[in-house]
Amino acid sequence: MAVMQMYRTAGRTALWAALAAATLLTSGCAGWVRDNLTQSATPWRRIQPAALPVTLPDSRDFPIVAARMRDTGTVYKTYNVALGNPTSLAGENRLTVDVQTLPDSLFGALVQPPRVFPVPLYTMETLTVTTRREFPDMKVKVADGARRNRYGDYDYATAQDAVNSCVLAWQLITDHKRMLPERIEAVRLEYRVCGVGSDIRALLAPFDGLTLTLPETILEAQDLGGL
Amino acid sequence: MTSPVGTSRRGMLIGTAALGLAAAVPGALRAAPYDGAAWRRYAERFLLPEGRIVDTGNKGISHSEGQGYGMLLAVAGGDRAAFDRLWGWTQRVLMVRGDGLVAWRWTPDGGVADRNNASDGDMLIAWALLRAAETWQAEAYRTAAAAIVKALAAGVLVEQAGLTVLLPGRDGFRKGETLVLNPSYWIFPAIRAFAALAGGERWGKLSDSGLVLLSKARFGGFQLPPDWMTLDAAGTVGIADGFKKQYGYDAVRVPLYLAMDGYRDPYYFRPFATLATKFGGSAVPATVSLPGGTTTQVAASVGMLAVYRLACKLAGAGDAVTVPPLAPDEDYYSTTLAHLSALAAQSLGIDP
Amino acid sequence: MTRPVLLSALLLAGIAATATGGGSAAWAQSNGGARALAPGVKVEVAPAPGSGSAPAAGKVDETALRYYARIGDGERMEAEIARLRALDPGWEPPKDLFAPQPTATGVDETPFWTLMSAGKVAEARAAIAEQRRKSPSWQPSDKLLQELELAESAGRIRSASDTKRWQEVVDAAAAQPEAVACNRLDNAWRLAEAYAELKQTDRAFDTYKTIVTTCPKAKERRDTIFKASRHLSPERLRELSALGATANPATGEDYSAVRSAEAELETGRLLERLGNAKPGALSAADLSRVQGIVRDKQDADGAIALGWYFQKQKNFAEAQSWFTQANEWAPSDKAAEGLVLAYNGLGNKAQARAAAAPWKGKSSRIDQALKAVDPPRGPSGPGGGRTAPQGPSELDRALARHDFAECLSIIRGTIARSGPTAALLQQRGWCLLELKRPSEAEAAFAEAQTLAAREPAKGGASAPGKAGSRGPAASGLPQTATPAQENAYGQAIARLATGDVTGLTRDLPRANLTATQRAEIRASLMATEAGRALEDKRYNDVLRLLDARKELEPEPRNLGIVRGWALYNLMRFDEAYVQFKSIDDRLSTEESREGVSTAWKTIYHDW
């Protein structure tokens, strides 16, 4: 008998209940396997911005407010950078960086945790759900063309109301041939920022200008133009 | 570390395969039977004088699987001198672990490159020794085989969820309570031969559990087994992480080994037949991602098509697959599969 | 090609598979007496005697019947007799049904049937393959193969839908239409869900419709409507309920609950919309409808939702009446909070304070709300030039409307004009928390803390706390938080919201908090930890944490659900059922229903 269980949490609850529930939302099926502790995510822990594997250009509107990280198994490290939010809209401005490393040995890696991010990162459906959650009551538009930062092309969506604008940008770096060091399987970036006014380019400036600073060098896309 | 045999094999592009097929004349579609002449051609191409089979598709390395296949084909081809050279090199160079099992991988530059064993290689070698003992009435082969079988039983036969299963190697295939298994390491005819040895009861159970697992490990639209699977403590099977999640170069041997052991239940051959007929029996893809079902641009090799032809016959799908003749530069793995398929068909009394 | 199968024999006497592997294009729409249940499948009445596709008389396959007889499964035996009669009306059950039956080939199928009945389908397959290897001339009976395929298809549908591979669900159902039937309702639901996920809403609707019009049990029809509610529009749900309440009634079944299912869903939807609605977003008809239902059911949570709806519209009188109603039906700090702010909006500060009295110092909500009534600041507060006694400031009114975005704007403006104060920064922290911006909130509280340390200790004229006083009150009365404690408390809540559980646990013993605040934070930490434990499948830990938490605070509904799943996964199914049922009885929601039904099915093996 396959016993698969889903549980969900109530939508509108007291603050306390909502806090308690926050960790539950990510769960899906819970079978009978007991020994999976090494595969689940550690709690978030505070880190100094200097310890982040990413450097953002200085920004008056979007300074780093806090930085956190957690591990999932031995292969994933997730960094969450909370950025300043000059608007009065709900929701944190943030940059999330997931680093997927290759395990050191084949045998050490036989059982890996499930991916912490989906591939493809978004489908039209999941994007709609996400933008509706991130930018409720705003007019959302998915950008027709990709933009380019140091690490290649990325996609983004914009949201606007009378006063503010927001962007959601996402990028998956998997170019092993040229960009990524041997030990890194993939880097996933997601950037969500709201600001006052309608200048989308200004909102994207930090994402356009960020530099990844992992222990092994990640080559930038434009370095490779001549190759 | 390198992944075990099979994961890095490449075939030709589907386009090329289709071209090769168009050149083949209908009526000349029967694969050649396996005989002494076929063995001599095989030995000329893949057996080096020192007694190692060279994997031409994998940078000229050698491995326990190749030695086992070579020894099997040498017995079937009646070439005892070649058999002894193969067995001698295997003992001298690969049996360096001290536990009676065989280091699985050897490279021309580095010698033994990975001391871990690959259970299917050990099994092929032991089974070939048993067949040699029978064919040439030589007790020494039987003694050597029994020692390997005993080491295998001690090192890689384990119980999980009420099933007796085979670890793909002695080290590294357990993670907590979950095991990583390779369905194509169930070499049914070898297992049956081991079960007939004194104290071989656990091998009998291994056969039974193999059939159970092959019934459970069916994924995606074609219901194919994965190259690498997991089995947890509750008996639930899954597709293993850390490997390509696919049906491919490893698992294609599942129907071959079943057929070689005399199984005829169409149920066990249908997934492979379904895949082959879906692609018209010609440009069958070499791998299918699981559970998604994405197929690769790389076409199944001649040897793989020979396996599919066999599977289609046993699944009641008739002559759905046409097997082109082996190319002059056909690689080691494809050629081996083609010959083993012919042997299986011959033993079942059907056209190869 | 007709493939006779075992179905819930009363209604579906036969099923014809017309699919030829063509996939979705072969979908047969309802026509005549046939109903669509799976792509390419028509559910229809038994073929007429002697019609082409029925097996010739005397060739009825009695294998399964004999097997059921031998193991004494009367129910399935009778169903099989009915099925065989439908296939061949001239057929009579054999008289020697219970006698051992030597088979022609000399192979006894009993071991295979036994394995299959025990749910060991793979083992049955293995045993058959082994038998066929040994006796190449033997073939298993068609009936055995069919039952195996059916069991395997059901497994395939289940695993494909569990892993959200929707097209595969549809394909598996098409390959084995018999796997989707009333006696395998779970498969039918999964098929409908798969259509919905594939955006084939019409097919999803048709599948649900077939279920509620053909499956006899009222409970099943009702459950189907709840399942469908996640995928269908209100209009189609209404249609479904009406059909389910009337079509093909079976004797002894009461279908009134089927009709009311739709109304229950409608109320839930309206209340949810009420929560998110901007002023005036609900039509007058909807509003009056939801008011009627809330009154009928004396639903306190619904009344609170209505209260806030009117409060946001600044209709304070109407808001006050609903909050009062809620507080009468079920006194709570949530209801009192609304009441305090509604009275405040009406300018009736005395009433506001009276409403707060039972909770003052015990509930952070109430203490927070009281700040709108009696702003905790000096006589020259930052209220944009006005003085406090003249009525609520702009900021207070924004807070009373729960307009936290406005709160931020006002504070930003005030700080720009006259500089930051500790109180302002603290308020900014609370508003940021409400806007789900906990990282900035934590920073705001920390800043407030720093600023407070520099500000001269000025006793807030009407503030509940005395600035600078430290330590618990000696009297034993509920301790009032100092501004410093409020800041520490705010920071702790912000850290909880960011998931900084480890750090907070470490720092909590040293934090300057009142006993009540500390208990509240501890309870939340334990709830969070319990959630993590559930994710990690440490079910005994879940119970340990929830039990400890329960000593500090009553267990809220969602944690009750968590407790239920922990019990379930510890195989304490009876306790899990009781747990889910007690929650479901108070207020039935999708997750409580799911818990009840899963536990029930497990206990009674009713998958």
TrEMBL record, chain A:
Source domain of life: Bacteria
Pfam families for the chain: CBP_BcsN
Listed InterPro entries: CBP_BcsN
Protein name, per record: Lipoprotein
Species the sequence originates in: Azospirillum melinis
From TrEMBL, chain B:
Family annotation (Gene3D superfamilies): 1.50.10.10
Classification via PROSITE patterns: GLYCOSYL_HYDROL_F8, TAT
Pfam families referenced in this protein's UniProt entry, alphabetically: Glyco_hydro_8
Hydrolase as UniProt keyword: yes
Annotated InterPro entries: 6-hairpin_glycosidase_sf (IPR008928), 6hp_glycosidase-like_sf (IPR012341), Glyco_hydro_8 (IPR002037), Glyco_hydro_8_CS (IPR019834), TAT_signal (IPR006311)
Top-rank taxon: Bacteria
Annotated signal peptide: 1-31
Protein name per the record: Glucanase
EC number: 3.2.1.-
UniProt catalytic activity: Endohydrolysis of (1->4)-beta-D-glucosidic linkages in cellulose, lichenin and cereal beta-D-glucans
Alphabetized UniProt keyword annotations: Carbohydrate metabolism, Cellulose degradation, Glycosidase, Hydrolase, Polysaccharide degradation, Signal
Family stated for the protein in its record: Belongs to the glycosyl hydrolase 8 (cellulase D) family.
Automatic annotation (TrEMBL), chain C:
Region feature Disordered, mapped onto this chain: 371-393, 453-482
Keyword terms: Signal
Membrane-spanning parts: none
Bias (Low complexity) ranges: 453-476
Signal sequence extent: 1-19
UniProt cross-references to InterPro entries, sorted A to Z: TPR-like_helical_dom_sf (IPR011990), TPR_rpt (IPR019734)
Presence of keyword Signal: yes
Keyword Cytoplasm part of the UniProt annotation: no
Protein name: Tetratricopeptide repeat protein
